[in-house]
C-alpha cells in the first residue's frame, strides 16, 4: 500500500462546506476529509471553520466522494486545498 506524502491529523471540528454543515475528520497541509449529509453542487468548494476565535476560510477541490451507510446516510468527501492561508498551518501545528 502506498503511503501518503503528508501526515494526516485527526480532527473532529464542525465546518461549513459550501454553506452546509459537516464535520472535519482529518486534515493535512494539502487536503482534508469532511463528512456531511448533503453533497455540494460543484467540484470547487468553500470550507469554513473556527479555530482559536477566528474563522479559517479554505478553497477546496473535491477529489473523491464515498457514501457511508450507518444510522443516517452521509458522505465522506476528500478535498485538495488551493493556497491555504497561514492561519490554517498554525491550526495544523496546534493539533
Task: Fill in the keyword field for this structure.
95 residues; Thrombin, subunit H; single chain; 6-stranded antiparallel beta barrel; 1 helix; mainly beta
3D structure, described in words:
This protein is mainly beta. Helices cover 9% and strands 58% of the residues. It is built from one helix and six strands; from the N terminus they run E-E-E-E-E-E-H. The protein has one helix at residues 86-94; strands at 9-17, 20-27, 31-36, 44-51, 54-68, 74-82. The protein has a six-stranded antiparallel β-barrel. A hairpin with a 3-residue loop joins strand 2 and strand 3.
Q: What is the topology?
A:
Layout: E1 9-17, E2 20-27, E3 31-36, E4 44-51, E5 54-68, E6 74-82, H1 86-94
Antiparallel strand pairs: 1-2, 1-4, 2-3, 3-6, 4-5, 5-6
Give a quick account of the main beta sheet: strands, pairing sense, barrel closure.
6 strands, antiparallel, barrel
Radius of gyration: 13 Å
H/E element string?
EEEEEEH
Multimeric status of the protein: single chain
CATH homolog superfamily? predicted glycosyltransferase like domains
The domain tally reads 1
Straight-line distance between termini: 26 Å
CATH topology: Thrombin, subunit H
Q: What proportion of the residues is helical, as a percent range? A: under 10%
Q: Total strand count, please?
A: 6
Which class of secondary structure composition applies to the elements? Answer: mainly beta
Overall CATH class:
Mainly Beta
Number of helices: 1
Quote the average pLDDT: 88
Report the CATH architecture.
Answer: Beta Barrel
Beta-strand percentage range: over 45%
Shape field: globular
Amino acid at each position: 500500500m502506498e503511503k501518503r506524502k503528508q501526515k494526516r491529523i485527526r480532527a473532529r471540528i464542525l465546518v461549513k462546506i459550501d454553506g452546509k454543515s459537516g464535520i472535519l475528520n482529518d486534515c493535512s497541509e494539502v487536503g482534508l476529509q469532511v463528512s456531511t449529509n448533503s453533497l455540494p453542487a460543484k467540484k470547487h468548494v468553500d470550507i469554513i471553520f473556527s479555530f482559536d476565535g477566528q474563522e479559517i476560510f479554505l478553497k477546496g477541490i473535491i477529489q473523491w466522494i464515498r457514501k457511508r451507510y450507518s444510522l443516517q446516510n452521509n458522505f465522506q468527501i476528500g478535498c485538495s486545498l488551493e493556497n491555504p492561508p497561514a492561519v490554517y498551518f498554525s491550526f495544523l501545528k496546534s493539533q
